[in-house]
Amino acid sequence: MEAVTALRQSSSVATARMKEKEREMIEAGLLPPLPPQPSIPLGIKKDSVRDSISSARTVKLSDDEEEALRMRLENMGAVVGSSLAER
Predict the structure, then answer these.
(1) What angle do CA 56, 58, 59 make, to 5 degrees?
(2) Over 90: is that where the pLDDT of 43 sits?
(3) Considering the entire predicted model, what is its pTM?
């Protein structure tokens, strides 16, 4: 459980660092500007069920943070699994 918390914090720092570098590169003219975010239509969102379930959690993560955390956990699992397979 402690590893998940540490990885969550680490991935949020890494995501913030990446977004800052991306913003700097856009301002310097090295990258094209990001397209505008689409507006969310009124009505039922596709994530409404997931949102209602996850609202009980104490820490609400954005989709980017969840994806970064999931990728890090999967990478750890791949390393551990490959080490076990070698033995």
Answers:
(1) 115
(2) no
(3) 0.54
